[in-house]
Amino acid sequence: MQENILKQGRISSLFVKFSVPAIIAMVVAGMQTVIDGLFLGNLIGPNAMASVSIGGPYIQFVIGFSMLISVGSLSFMGRSLGEGKEKLAQDIFKTSFILLSLGAIFFSFLGVVFSENIGLTLGSNDILIHDVSIYIKTISVCILPMCLGFLIGFTNRLVEKPDLYFKGMIVSLIVNITLNYILIKKLQLGIAGAALATGLSYSSVFIVVLPPMLKKENIINLFIGKFKKSTIFPVIYNGSSEAMSALATVVSAYLFNNAFMKIAGESGVAAFTSINYIAQFGMLTVFGIADGITSIISYNYGAKEFGRVKSIVKLSLYVSSVVCFATFIVLFFFSDNLINMFVGSDEFVGELAKTGSKLYAFSFIFNGFSIIYSSYFTAIGYAKESIIIALNRGLIFILIGIIILPKLIGIHGIWLTVPFAELLTFIISLYLMNKYRLPSTHANIKDLEYANTKY
Q1: Each residue of 197-246: pLDDT tens digit?
Q2: Which contacts qualify for 348-355: CB closer than 8 Å, 24 or more apart?
Q3: Helix (H, G, I), strand (E, B), or coil: what is residue 16?
Q4: Cα separation of 81 and 301, whole Å?
Q5: pLDDT tens-digit profile of 421-445?
Q6: Cα Rg, the chain, nearest whole Å
Q7: pTM of the predicted model as reported, rounded to 2 decimal places
């Protein structure tokens, strides 16, 4: 049974079994936009990349809503199963499925009908608005299967299928490459082709991860459980840090896009986008580690196996530190040729990005710790601390940095905003982890003194 694996399996083996598929899934998911960037940057130009960068936050916001429900329910279900409350876990899944479906339909409607308004709100100018609107409108058609793919893919980890989500992402990568080649290169559909390729590729994940939820013998499936209003708040509360991260991503993208538009125009946005394409491989690997350990932590926390919780967190911090250091080396010393893959022959954009990558690289010295700590607090059901970390690293310190630093050192200040935010968040994360240490055994749960232990 999955319960025995999570509670009794070796920590290192569980890390490999759960985090490696999650890492691959995260990296492959990130490659979707990178693939779009390669096709658009080389076949259409930097303005196409900038349009995707400006329109992208809307989809990131929708994905954040999906993560709010998906991660919140996974944390709640994992702890419920660890406590032996199978019926509650089934009700949590059914409620989350219905709630997420309704939200996805609503966001799909908004994206299709109000795409231009959304684009203008996100900072598009007259040059880019047409392409931004097309991107948002086209990809919004696929929002429902995209959202459900996250929820079901995550839930599969609780029914002994942690590998299905990453297999679905592999399929989506193949679909995306194929459709980008056909729709952009052959049919010359431009931004619409890129959006459709990305939307359909994400939708293919839903098809791959669905089968376990159709099997009635699984402890969690689509045919059992009922909608239970009392589970909605705990799900949203547990996943609220994910929503805050998504909101922070949207707001910070807006801030960065506007800052670069003022200083360097569309070229500045394209340069920042190209660096993000490279940096996100390291970032997504760390997020994959954090994502993969959630079910391990939540189940063992529910079972009061605190020693195992501490062991998986320690291992995750070690691996994420190695990944972040490697990403720093790549960005600081070897980013030039990689940037040329996205900007083609545009020398001005290339020089902006090459200079910026060396400054941006310093963010990876600190961010792995904050990401793991935030995921840890989410997994044990203490969203307040997770929200504090997520909001500080993704919004509050970004806002402070982007207001102050460019005034002091110009465009270099924009590049240094993320390292500035990561450093300060790292300090706060260490403080929170030290303040709320887990007891060594399962005997002293009250020592934590958290406000939300009832969830």
Answers
A1: 888 988 999 999 999 999 988 889 999 989 999 999 888 887 777 777 66
A2: 348/267, 349/46, 349/267, 349/270, 349/271, 349/274, 350/271, 352/264, 352/267, 352/268, 352/271, 352/411, 353/271, 353/272, 353/274, 353/275, 355/412, 355/415
A3: helix
A4: 11
A5: 999 999 999 999 888 777 655 444 4
A6: 21
A7: 0.69
